[in-house]
Write a structure and sequence with these properties.
Length: about 350
């Protein structure tokens, strides 16, 4: 029997699936009562990750507190997260006084960052993506830290290469990606200076039914708009699997910092995915441009060797998304701009 349904028909069902903890995560949380602080918990991934952590604690009978910190978009949104049993703190992580007011927990997940609009405000981009991590890493130097990063710190690679590995030299294109590499370096510096255990997660890309690369392609097809083929290949990973990998990477944190690529095992073709959406929507697909010989791709075999393979394949997510869009499911309206090749977001 599959661990996931054939269709997802409501946001409640979607949220339950995105936050459903597996046995390995529950076992990880069983012996430990050390609290978990999630910085940037109000973004696209944060709420479901926090809920998964809380549900794993409940299954394990752990007294660990899950605390979400963010500049929440509204009191209603913050209360929705609190209703899951998660403690919340509203504040600006660029404010040093606010940072010093936060509890020093045993475990910290850092998710805050800036991408879209980064080219229009480069100083803020660097402040959020590099300066803020330095402040956070210093303050939480006695904690175990998992820090989100991005596969954008790599160069574009030949499609036949299988994707960039953690041992490859970074080659970030554009100041957004450069500032993300700066974020990594700040956590690495503190890890080396204080022997702080750190895991750095190079994510590329999380997807679910309301946003993500697959939704971007699906909407182009559904709306009969041309699908750009220049960035012709990509990786994705179901957000529920991302949450599981990130939470279990707490136990993998070490000094010097450990770097892990987190993405799905498939190298997906934009053309083939668009054609499949065309079949599911019963509509003709239009294309523009042609596939380049390189793409932004990551190889996650190192993560799989310790955390196992993702549970949900991309083909299943494609079917879910088509059904979700066809029935008018809610969308976040936040395109990923995955087709950008010069790093200017």
């Amino acid at each position: 029997m599959k661990p996931y349904p054939d269709t997802i028909n409501s946001e409640e069902q979607l949220e339950e699936l995105l936050s459903r903890p597996g046995d390995s995560l529950t076992e990880l949380f069983f012996p430990s009562d050390g609290d978990l602080l999630i910085l940037g918990a109000g973004g696209k991934i944060g709420p479901s990750l926090a809920r998964m952590a809380k549900r794993a604690c409940e299954r394990a009978g752990s007294g660990k507190r899950i605390i979400g910190v963010s500049l929440f978009e509204s009191e209603e949104y913050q209360k929705k997260i609190e209703d899951s049993g998660i403690l919340t703190i509203n504040g600006d992580l660029l404010n040093t006084d606010f940072i010093r007011s936060l509890p020093k927990t045993e475990n910290v997940i850092f998710m805050a960052g800036m991408k879209f609009g980064s080219s229009d405000n480069l100083s803020l981009t660097w402040a959020v993506n590099s300066y803020m991590p330095a402040l956070i890493a210093e303050y939480f130097r006695l904690s175990r830290i998992v820090a989100f990063s991005t596969g954008c710190v790599y160069s574009l690679v030949p499609v036949g290469s299988g994707g960039s590995k953690e041992t490859d030299t970074p080659g970030p294109a554009g100041e957004y990606a450069q500032s993300c590499l700066g974020r990594e370096r700040m956590f690495e510096f503190i890890s080396n200076k204080y022997n702080t255990p750190v895991s750095i997660i190079r994510l590329n890309y999380a997807v679910e039914l309301r946003y993500g690369v697959l939704v971007d392609i699906a909407l182009k097809v559904k709306n009969k708009q041309p699908v750009d083929l220049e960035m012709g290949y990509f990786n994705v990973m179901w957000q529920g699997d991302v949450n599981d990998f990130v939470l279990r990477s707490i136990e993998l944190a070490e000094s010097p910092a450990r770097i892990l690529n987190v993405t799905g095992p498939e190298i997906l073709s934009v053309r083939e995915v668009a054609i499949e959406f065309g079949r599911l929507f019963n509509t003709e697909v239009r294309f523009s441009g042609k596939e380049a010989e390189t793409a932004l791709l990551s190889n996650s075999n190192l993560a799989y060797s310790t955390l196992g393979k993702p549970k949900v394949p991309a083909c299943q997510v494609i079917q879910w998304i088509a059904q979700w869009i066809n029935t008018g499911g809610k969308l976040l309206g936040k395109p990923t701009h995955f087709e950008v090749r010069d790093g200017k977001y």
